[in-house]
Amino acid sequence: MKNKFFRITLVMYVLTLSTTVAQAQAASVQELERKLQERDKVILELLDRVEALERRVGVQRPTSNTPDLPSTEKNLAQDSDQEPGTVVVEEGAAERALERSLTR
């Protein structure tokens, strides 16, 4: 009799605990989704502000053909399959820059 009561109590405890954990996870997922939506809203607002400022100041976004780049940078920019904003550096140039910064 005691053994059966203990088993029933244990099963009820486990069910209650698992239900509580599931509810907590659902709440945390909802909170994370809400925060992501807020972040996306802020990003869109900032993009709108940047575009409005660029229009007001008269700044043109750079085109793909930029004639003022040195030939090595043009080649790197054309050969690059990376996303905009990523930095492509020649290994030799990076080594020289590191050497110059360490000798100062």
Describe the overall structure:
The chain is an all-alpha fold. The chain folds into two domains: 1-61; 66-104, no CATH class. It has helices at 2-57, 71-79, 91-103. The longest helix has 56 residues, at 2-57. It is elongated.
Put the structure in a nutshell.
The chain is mainly alpha-helical and 104 residues long. It has helices at 2-57, 71-79, 91-103.
Per-chain topology:
Elements: H1 2-57, H2 71-79, H3 91-103
Sheet with the most strands, sense and barrel status: none
DSSP, total strands: 0
Relative helix content: over 70%
How many whole angstroms does the radius of gyration measure? 29 Å
Kindly name the structural category: mainly alpha
- Note the run of SSEs as H and E: HHH
> Per the principal axes of the C-alpha atoms, what is the gross shape?
elongated
Distance between the termini: 84 Å
Mean pLDDT: 75
State the low-pLDDT regions, or none. Answer: none
Instruction: Please report which band the strand proportion falls in: under 5%, 5-15%, 15-25%, 25-35%, 35-45% or over 45%.
Output: under 5%
Q: Counting H and I runs of at least 4 residues, what is the number of helices?
A: 3
Total count of domains: 2
Oligomeric state of the chains in view: single chain
